[in-house]
Amino acid sequence: MIDLEPLAQQLLAARRLLIATHAAPDGDGVGCQLALRQLLAGPERGVTAVVIGELPPRFRFLPGSGTLRDWTAITEDQQLEFLASHDQVLVVDTHVWSMLGPLGDVLRRADVPTVFLDHHPIEGDAPPNLFCDPKASSAGEICWHLTRALRLPVSADAATSLYAAISYDTNSFKYLRRRAETHRIAAELVDRGADTDAVYRHLFASHSLAKVALTGEISSRLHLEEGGLVAWMVIDQELLTRTRATPDDLREVITQLIEIEGVEIALLFKQRQHGNYKVSLRSKGRYAVSPVTRELGGGGHAFAAGANLDGAVEDVTARVLGLVGKVIAEFGA
């Protein structure tokens, strides 16, 4: 584990702290924000947490979720003033400026010290104030160690938020790659009162009608390649409009693809606008997919990565499938 003492001292020295996460907020980033806000806020320190856009409904059960501010609701002429009212910014679950969407552009212009805490592999020119452990299962796992460096007691509410963060990014502890440390941390959080039933119910056992509709589309849109080792699907704007699916509804589609028997690599092509696709890749662990996304100008973990591509859907899918085929050929089917 990386040394988090310097980060802890920075945060404890702050008097007005702002905690942010990437655009399209997810359970890992939001869970970290809420846990750290609950732990660090007090008479001597004001703490504000912002999300970029509306918080997806399934995360609203988390303790303190009502305190999150929507960055997009702050008018442009007030954004710099709002940032200037803080003396420290902490960004969790990303270290890439572009992942911060509209907040990133303003934050880079603001004269406010900014520090990053992340578990994703370092991409390109990393920001100087980065605390990153790519071996960690989630940002929530690193935040647990940060609470130890802060020497602050972890309440039941904070434990629930951190447990949710870790659960979300490991898909309810299914993707641990034999990492026992994550289970030990989860047990510590349960001992501190984490509401595991609520986390499971809201994150993994509650599905919107739009998500159910998407599930129904998989059988008709599913393609198998490489003798069944590769499963892929295209989600276009027509499908999104018809099902009224939100970005959060789309997150688990690729999980459903990778869990098909015999499939080792799953690909999801999501149309963002005409001629532009977000490509998500997942692997069960036999083949690394990060070399594919690096070739495409993207990034991510060895077994979970993504990229954005321009072009006609036929060209985009053919290009990605060709690279995936090379990976399989190199490592052997």
Report on this structure:
Helix 5 (about 140-150) runs antiparallel to helix 6 (about 155-170). The protein has 2 domains: about 5-205, inorganic pyrophosphatase (n-terminal core); about 210-330, Diaminopimelate Epimerase, Chain A, domain 1, CATH 3.10.310.30. The protein has 14 helices and 12 strands. About 45% of the residues lie in helices and about 20% in strands. It has a 6-stranded parallel sheet, with helices on one face. The radius of gyration is 20 Å and the shape is globular. Helix 2 links the parallel strand 1 and strand 2 (about 45-50).
Strand content is 15-25%
Number of domains: 2
What's the Cα radius of gyration?
Answer: 20 Å
* Number of continuous helical runs: 14
Just name the CATH architecture of the largest domain. Alpha-Beta Complex
Regions with pLDDT < 50 over 5+ consecutive residues? none
SSE class: alpha/beta
CATH fold descriptor of the largest domain: inorganic pyrophosphatase (n-terminal core)
CATH class of the largest domain: Alpha Beta
Taking the sheet with the most strands, its summary is: 6 strands, parallel
Give the beta-strand count: 12
Strand order of the largest sheet: 3-2-1-4-5-6
Assign an overall shape. globular
First-to-last CA distance: 35 Å
Mean pLDDT: 93
